[in-house]
Amino acid sequence: MNLETHEEFLNVLQNTRLGPRILGFEYLLGLSATDDGILEILSFKKYVPFLVKYIGETNCNKETLSLAYKCVINISTVQEGVMALLNSKDLVISLLNRICDINYKFIKEICYILSNMSRYKEILQQNDCFLDAELLDKILKVFMSNHSEVKEKFQFLALYFANMSGYPSRRKLMLENEKFIDFLFSSYIFSSETNVRRIGIALTLRNLCSEQSSHAMLLEKGILPVLLLPLMGSEEYEEEEMEKLPLECQYLEDAKERERLPVIRRALVQALSLLCYTKRGWEYLKEHSVYYVTRELHKWEADFDTKEAIETLVGFLLVIDYSKMSHEADELVTPSVTEILKDIPDFVVS
């Protein structure tokens, strides 16, 4: 479309009666479902500001508002789209404030947008809930609701947390927020949660463990059983091995099953490896029978990538002297820095 055609089409979206406007939004949504289509939308600088303003309105037709949100979801799947969206001042804060109302109709869509946008470091250009303790408290309150319908709507916010924890500045703010840490350590997170929520929380825990200066605090607050329990089955241990395990991990029921998703098991194993970056963490894991848990997990594990991560962890735990820096087999080799979450697909809505 040329400039004049874009202007006419935008006028349809803004000023015509409902029927043609719905058709216009449907066309724009179809266009946004491909990378080339998104680039076409971005080439006309007025579309994105219009969409951002439109989804912020309170008196719009619900059908057109839903279509507008879906367009923004698609635009947020590419870096150029995220940069265009972030040109709208305080967009992130505005979206976060909207989802504090659990009755808002488009919570799921906003969580998709935040999850997508947070994959790109440009999101750090704007303020967010980690810079506003009061707002974060509100976000956690709704995210932790036990109502199944509410939990389902907010599940992709867990991926937003995971992505943001990959950025050092936000990771440090998370670690300084006691309520956020307590929320992550809550015992229910690996039981009845949806897969998406559990993946997001596991990856957040993994990323937090990359902050070496916080290892002592994380261990003191009880991160070890949070990481170990999902990796444990109903296997029996020698009495001496069992007594060294954290209390929460001792004498588990015969029906105890391991976490079923490899991506979660792998993230938790990587988190344990990251705790070996510091002598305090390495010693703590050795003192609490983590080797024996990983030994049993390795026997059971069928996923190649997870098994490889387990072998890396076992290698760290078998080191005799943490400070020994030779080229012998018992040298402690620092693990590679964990990646920011990249293995969750985009949420393109067509």
TrEMBL record:
Pfam families named among the record's database cross-references = DUF383, DUF384
Q: Can you tell me which family this protein belongs to?
A: Belongs to the HGH1 family.
Lineage top rank: taxon: Eukaryota
Name listed for the protein in its UniProt record:
Protein HGH1 homolog
- Domain Protein HGH1 N-terminal, first and last residues per copy: 99-265
Q: Which Gene3D superfamilies match?
A: Leucine-rich Repeat Variant
Gene coding for it: hgh1
Q: Spell out the InterPro entries in the cross-references.
A: ARM-like, ARM-type_fold, Hgh1, Protein_HGH1_C, Protein_HGH1_N
Q: Which residues cross the membrane?
A: none
Which residues are in the Protein HGH1 C-terminal domain?
271-317
Q: Which SUPFAM superfamilies match?
A: ARM repeat
